């Protein structure tokens, strides 16, 4: 049965619908739920997949005879760098395998551009009057809060299914030398699930920029986090940049946080030879070396990149049903009502939900009162400001499947109730 | 038999001595040694003491039920913070347990003072015309290279057996608001082995400073690294600062790098409530949380602070003979010659050797040609500049005892040869 779009209902019909929905919502609150869809965290069953890590490594030397229990080795174990290189489709020589956090490596790059400038900077960014970053929206909240903390202005562009809006980006970077950088989550983007196409990536790597030291922070957090058989291959950012004559433009990041243990995995950075040397030179003043025991632990656990790929199949088996449950719950109540659209991601950690303009905050509020925690409305936008107040990021991996089903049925009620409240009052 | 001071020898006697020493040195080179006394690294036998860590943790939740395999917990596991607090004589509430590197935590503090300023800063340090640090010398080379990298000027004061020269420090900080901070390794200092007394610490924490945001970076890397039964207790920097009305002055650092695995241990920062909140607020933009699996691994391994203390006894048993061998080798050749003095540390990782003025570089060069790698002369001074060219840092923990004996006998030859070369040519 096709439902009627809520926008075509009469005032009386809306009032009647509102009464029904309020009853549904009252019932929902009576369930006294305590569910959390806020953060992209692996579920306990996913973490269990890597339990063998806790008994590794079996030895304490790597293949080159380095005692991983002692100091040194700033760029990480070669075996670990090879695994990342294979997964990211790049050369091991371009990779630095680091500590437990790719976010920290991104933060290092931005602060070092501020304090020292890059190899191609006229001066450190902190000596510029203004520094701006292009931010595709919706995007990853921690990217934006990092920039805000560091005093970097954010200008937004639209995120499409194939990546950032290239025309908008080009217009921003062409003439303004204060636009120094840009964020991209190229594969299964947070939160939209978009995959940056090779065409879009090629244009971004080749486009003229007024700033000679323009950086694209290519946060490939979900490179191997497929949810379907269609295993998307990430665009070759480093290769495209090199052939375009802009080898230093992209800096790539990845980690095993959502592959093994979140916060106890291994992170990586990859870049041009010049950028990598620059990064290691700075790092040498800040650290003696990464946790190589944990790197060897991961190397023994996976064996090689194919070991990672096989492991990701197990994650998919656990979480794909949760994503299906989100779609099912939203579809069964909202399809045809013309008040919401949502992503059907083929990878990554999020479902991106757009509700009726001006109602996202209300949906989050209603859900909260019913015991369902959602990421604050607007958090996928710089300074938390969603100009249309319509975007909500859903993170279904951490709760159990049953919890996702219950929570999402509740969210769907809240989405419809907020829409009818608004339509009935206007 | 008491030897004759070389300085009292006649020209002929010196020439004769030079001939003998050149023969000794030729013999030394023929041994084709390949020994390294450069870095304060634990020996493989010390690392073996912690081998059980590789099979830990047995569980994956801490006592409060946190799944250590997942994200979060920026200030670290409470159990880990309690162990550090007990060892450092402070309150667990003052401690942040972090990643694998206390050096990285120091670097964060300095960069955040530059980029953001502290809770008591008139403005970020990067907006000051000049920022200076007081550097006791000889000191830790990585402290100095970090400041140089970040554009901070260094002014030196003398390091005595009971800590930095307080009168010199007071004179530097009293009227010059650009003097923003100071390094101290308070316990078994790198490289002199000095222990900062409570009296000196009290004066440093209480002294008037022109800068309202003056920081003492209290790098207590060797707090529990005793070499004798006389187990020195570190001065209570945080307590002394608080009673002096300067609670935000000290920031304390420590790590298990030279307790368990170097580079795969757990680091900690401790500070006033205001400083700690400031640190965590900044950290929140740069990281999601430390490696809690590794923290739980350490908590299970030690049990409590007494477990750490018992573990340090095992280290002492392994390395105290190496320190004795250094002293023995230097004494047997050099005592009475009046060309060298050296420390007899009661803890820590180094022996501090002062040779005849103007010969340290030559000693290092001679040793290198004989296959004995020493830390570059001057490395314990800002910009590597030892004004008297006399200081050499010896790090005897990494080689075996036999290697230390061989290497140090060779170093003693080089020290005497360089001295005689100089005296004979003047």
From TrEMBL, chains A, B:
GO MF annotation: an example: L-aspartate:2-oxoglutarate aminotransferase activity
Transmembrane segments: none
Keywords attached to this entry: DNA-binding
The UniProt record lists the keyword DNA-binding: yes
InterPro entries referenced in this protein's UniProt entry, alphabetically: AspAT_Ic (IPR024551), PyrdxlP-dep_Trfase (IPR015424), PyrdxlP-dep_Trfase_major (IPR015421), PyrdxlP-dep_Trfase_small (IPR015422)
Pfam families: Asp_aminotransf
Name of the protein: DNA-binding transcriptional MocR family regulator
Protein source organism: Nocardioides thalensis
């Amino acid at each position: 049965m096709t439902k009627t779009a809520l926008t075509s209902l009469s005032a009386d019909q809306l009032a009647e619908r509102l009464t029904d929905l309020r009853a549904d919502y009252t019932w929902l609150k009576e369930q006294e739920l305590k569910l959390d869809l806020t953060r992209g965290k692996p579920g306990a069953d996913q973490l269990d997949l890597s339990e063998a890590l806790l008994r590794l490594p079996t030895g304490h030397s790597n293949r080159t005879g380095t005692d991983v229990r002692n100091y040194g080795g700033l760029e990480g174990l070669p075996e670990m760098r090879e695994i990342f290189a294979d997964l990211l489709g790049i050369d091991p020589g371009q990779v630095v395998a680091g500590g437990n956090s790719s976010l920290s490596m991104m933060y290092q790059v931005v602060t070092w551009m501020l304090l020292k400038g890059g190899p191609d900077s006229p001066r450190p960014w902190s000596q510029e009057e203004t520094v701006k970053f292009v931010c595709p929206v919706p995007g990853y909240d921690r990217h934006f809060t990092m920039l805000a903390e560091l005093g970097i202005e954010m200008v937004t562009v639209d995120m499409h299914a194939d990546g950032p809006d290239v025309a908008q980006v080009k217009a921003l970077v062409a003439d303004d030398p204060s636009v120094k950088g840009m964020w991209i989550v190229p594969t299964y983007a947070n939160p939209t699930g978009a995959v940056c196409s090779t065409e879009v990536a090629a244009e971004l790597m080749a486009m003229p920029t007024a700033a000679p030291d323009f950086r694209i922070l290519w946060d490939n957090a979900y490179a191997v986090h497929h949810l379907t058989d269609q295993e998307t291959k990430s665009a070759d950012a480093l290769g495209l940049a090199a052939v375009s004559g802009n080898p230093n433009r992209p800096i790539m990041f990845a980690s095993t946080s959502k592959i093994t243990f979140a916060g106890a995995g291994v992170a990586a950075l990859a870049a041009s030879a010049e950028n990598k040397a620059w990064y290691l030179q700075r790092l040498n003043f800040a650290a003696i070396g990464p946790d190589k025991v944990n790197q060897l632990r991961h190397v023994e656990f996976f064996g090689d990149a194919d070991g990672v790929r096989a492991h990701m199949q197990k994650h998919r088996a656990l979480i794909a049903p949760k994503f299906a449950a989100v779609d099912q719950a939203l579809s069964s109540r909202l399809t045809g009502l013309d008040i919401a659209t949502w992503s059907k991601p083929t990878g990554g950690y999020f479902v991106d939900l757009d509700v009726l303009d001006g109602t996202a905050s209300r949906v989050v509020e209603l859900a909260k009162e019913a015991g369902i925690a959602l990421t604050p409305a607007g958090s996928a936008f710089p300074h938390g400001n969603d100009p249309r107040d319509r975007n909500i990021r859903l993170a279904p991996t951490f709760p159990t499947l049953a919890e996702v089903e219950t929570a999402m049925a509740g969210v769907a009620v809240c989405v419809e109730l907020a829409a009818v409240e608004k339509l009935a009052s206007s």
